[in-house]
C-alpha cells in the first residue's frame, strides 16, 4: 500500500484539477448568465440538466469499474479491461445520442419548454463523444498518476471556454452557437481522454483479462440500478421547479442550488484516490484490513472537517453576496437556494461509496437510493401542492439527502463493529463550528451594517478578519492544520 503521504499528494493533484476545472466552469457561467437573458439562460441550464441526468443512466455505472478492477490485476490485463470498458461506453454514447436526437420533442414537452427541442437536436452528438471520456479518474488514481488527471480537467474546461463562451460573447451568438461550441469542445475532450486513458499502460503487451464483459457488467449493473434512482434523486427538485415555476425561477435555482463547489472537489478528490486503496486492502486482507481502513477513514474525515467546515460557514453567511458577485444583481435571490444547499455540506464531509463498494455493499447502496428516491418524490410533490414554494422543494431535497447519508454511515459503522457516533470527531466539529460562526457573523455585521462597505470590500475584509481570528483560535486549541499540508511541502522540497 502507498504511504499516507503519497495519498495526500495524490488527493492534492486531483484537487488542483478540480479547482482549475471549476474556475473555468464558473467563469463560463458568469459570462453566459450576463450575456443571455434569464429565459435563454434558463433554457441553456435545462439542457445541461437533462444531459447530466441522463448521463448517469446511460453510463451503467461503468466509470466506477476502473477503480474496482484495475487494482486487482497487472498492467497487461488492465489494458484489456480498459479497452473493454471504453468500447461499452462508446456504444452507450451512440445510443444516448440517438435518444437525444429523436426524443428532443418529448423532452421539450415534459419540461414545458418547446424552445428546448432544436438545441437538443444540435446537442445530440455530445454524448457520443463524452461518454467514452468518462472514468479517467479511476485509471489515474489506480496508477498514482493524478497529476495527468489535473492536466486533463484543466484542458477540457479550456476547450469549453474557448468553444462555447468566446463565440457567444465576441460573435454575438445565440443558444445554438453555444451548443455547437459545446459539441466541438466535447470532440476535443474525447480525443484527449483516449490519449490519457492509455498512457499508464502504454508500451505494455495486452493480455486477455480474467474479467470478461459479463464480469464487468455484473459489477456495474447493480450500480446502474442505484444510478437510476440517483437520477430521480438528483433531478427531482430540478424537474419540479422547472415544470411548475418556469425557466426564469429555474435560472435562479440553477445558479444558487449547488453545494459548495470546494467541498465537492475535496470529497471527490479523496474518493478518487481512496477507492482503489480500499479495494486493494479488502481484496488482499479481508477482515484483517478493518483496523487499518478505519484508521485511514478517521484520518481523512478529521482533515476534511478542518478544511470544509470553516469554508461552509463563511459561504453560508455571505451566500447572497457571493451570488450577486458571480452572476449579477438579478440573481440576488439565488443566495437563498445556496444557503439551503450549504446545510448538507455539514454532513458530506467524506464519501461513503468507495468503502461501501469495496466491502460489497452495493445492494444496500441500491436499496437506500431506491427508497430514498420514492420518499423524496412524494414529499416534494406534496410540498408543491400544499405550499407551492421552490425554496421548500430545495429544503426537502436537503433533508432527504441527510437521511440517506445517515443510513449509509450506519452500514459502515456496522462493518467496523462500532457505534455510529464513533465515526465522527464531535469535539473537533464543535471546536470549529462555534467560533467560526461567531467570528464571521460579527465581522459581517461590522463591515456591512456599521461601516457600510460595498460588497467586494465587505467580503474581502470579513475574510481577512475571519482568517486571522480563526487562525489564532486553532493555535490556542491545538487544532493541527500543518499535518494536512506537510506531505505537500515534503514533495516540493524533493
From TrEMBL:
Taxonomy, superkingdom: Bacteria
A Pfam family assignment: Polysacc_synt_3
Keyword Transmembrane among record annotations: yes
Cross-referenced InterPro entries: Poly_Biosynth_Transport
Cellular compartment(s): Cell membrane
Residue spans crossing the bilayer: 12-36, 48-66, 87-107, 119-136, 148-169, 175-196, 216-240, 260-279, 307-328, 334-357, 364-384, 390-407, 428-447, 453-473
Keyword annotations: Cell membrane, Membrane, Transmembrane, Transmembrane helix
Gene Ontology cellular-component annotations: plasma membrane
Membrane topology: Multi-pass membrane protein
Official protein name in the record: Membrane protein involved in the export of O-antigen and teichoic acid
Lineage of source species: Bacteria, Pseudomonadati, Bacteroidota, Sphingobacteriia, Sphingobacteriales
Amino acid at each position: 500500500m502507498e504511504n499516507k503521504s503519497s495519498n495526500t499528494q495524490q488527493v492534492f493533484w486531483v484537487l488542483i484539477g478540480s479547482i482549475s476545472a471549476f474556475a473555468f466552469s464558473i467563469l463560463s457561467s458568469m459570462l453566459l448568465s450576463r450575456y443571455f437573458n434569464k429565459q435563454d439562460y434558463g433554457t441553456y441550464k435545462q439542457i445541461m440538466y437533462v444531459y447530466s441526468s441522463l448521463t448517469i443512466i446511460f453510463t451503467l455505472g461503468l466509470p466506477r469499474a476502473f477503480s474496482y478492477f484495475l487494482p486487482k490485476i497487472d498492467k497487461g490485463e488492465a489494458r484489456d479491461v480498459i479497452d473493454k470498458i471504453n468500447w461499452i461506453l462508446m456504444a452507450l454514447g451512440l445510443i444516448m445520442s440517438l435518444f437525444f436526437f429523436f426524443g428532443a420533442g418529448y423532452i421539450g414537452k415534459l419540461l414545458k419548454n418547446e424552445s428546448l427541442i432544436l438545441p437538443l437536436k444540435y446537442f445530440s452528438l455530445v454524448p457520443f463523444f463524452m461518454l467514452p471520456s468518462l472514468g479517467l479518474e479511476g485509471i489515474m488514481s489506480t496508477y498514482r498518476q493524478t497529476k495527468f488527471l489535473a492536466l486533463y480537467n484543466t484542458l477540457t474546461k479550456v476547450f469549453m471556454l474557448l468553444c462555447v463562451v468566446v463565440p457567444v460573447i465576441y460573435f454575438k451568438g445565440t443558444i445554438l452557437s453555444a451548443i455547437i461550441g459545446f459539441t466541438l469542445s466535447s470532440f476535443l475532450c474525447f480525443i484527449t481522454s483516449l490519449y490519457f486513458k492509455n498512457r499508464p499502460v502504454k508500451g505494455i503487451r495486452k493480455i486477455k483479462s480474467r474479467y470478461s464483459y459479463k464480469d464487468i457488467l455484473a459489477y456495474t449493473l447493480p450500480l446502474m440500478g442505484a444510478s437510476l434512482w440517483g437520477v430521480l434523486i438528483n433531478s427531482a427538485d430540478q424537474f419540479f421547479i422547472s415544470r411548475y415555476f418556469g425557466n426564469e425561477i429555474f435560472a435562479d435555482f440553477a445558479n444558487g442550488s449547488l453545494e459548495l463547489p470546494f467541498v465537492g472537489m475535496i470529497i471527490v478528490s479523496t474518493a478518487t484516490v481512496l477507492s482503489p486503496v480500499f479495494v486493494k486492502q479488502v481484496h488482499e486482507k479481508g477482515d484483517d484490513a478493518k483496523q487499518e481502513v478505519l484508521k485511514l477513514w478517521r484520518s481523512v474525515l478529521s482533515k476534511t472537517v478542518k478544511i470544509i467546515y470553516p469554508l461552509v460557514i463563511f459561504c453560508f453567511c455571505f451566500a447572497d453576496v457571493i451570488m450577486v458577485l458571480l452572476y449579477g444583481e438579478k440573481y440576488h435571490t439565488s443566495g437563498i437556494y445556496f444557503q439551503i444547499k450549504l446545510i448538507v455540506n455539514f454532513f458530506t464531509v467524506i464519501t461513503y461509496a468507495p468503502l461501501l463498494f469495496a466491502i460489497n455493499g452495493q445492494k444496500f447502496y441500491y436499496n437506500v437510493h431506491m427508497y430514498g428516491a420514492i420518499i423524496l418524490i412524494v414529499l416534494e410533490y406534496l410540498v408543491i401542492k400544499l405550499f407551492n414554494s421552490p425554496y421548500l422543494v430545495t429544503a426537502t431535497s436537503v433533508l432527504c439527502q441527510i437521511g440517506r447519508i445517515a443510513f449509509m454511515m450506519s452500514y459502515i459503522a456496522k462493518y467496523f463493529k462500532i457505534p455510529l457516533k464513533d465515526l465522527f470527531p464531535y469535539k473537533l466539529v464543535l471546536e470549529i463550528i462555534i467560533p467560526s460562526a461567531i467570528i464571521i457573523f460579527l465581522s459581517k455585521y461590522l463591515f456591512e451594517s456599521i461601516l457600510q462597505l460595498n460588497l467586494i470590500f465587505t467580503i474581502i475584509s470579513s475574510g481577512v478578519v475571519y482568517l486571522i481570528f480563526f487562525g489564532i483560535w486553532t493555535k490556542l486549541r491545538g487544532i493541527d492544520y500543518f499535518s494536512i499540508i506537510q506531505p505537500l511541502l515534503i514533495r516540493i522540497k524533493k
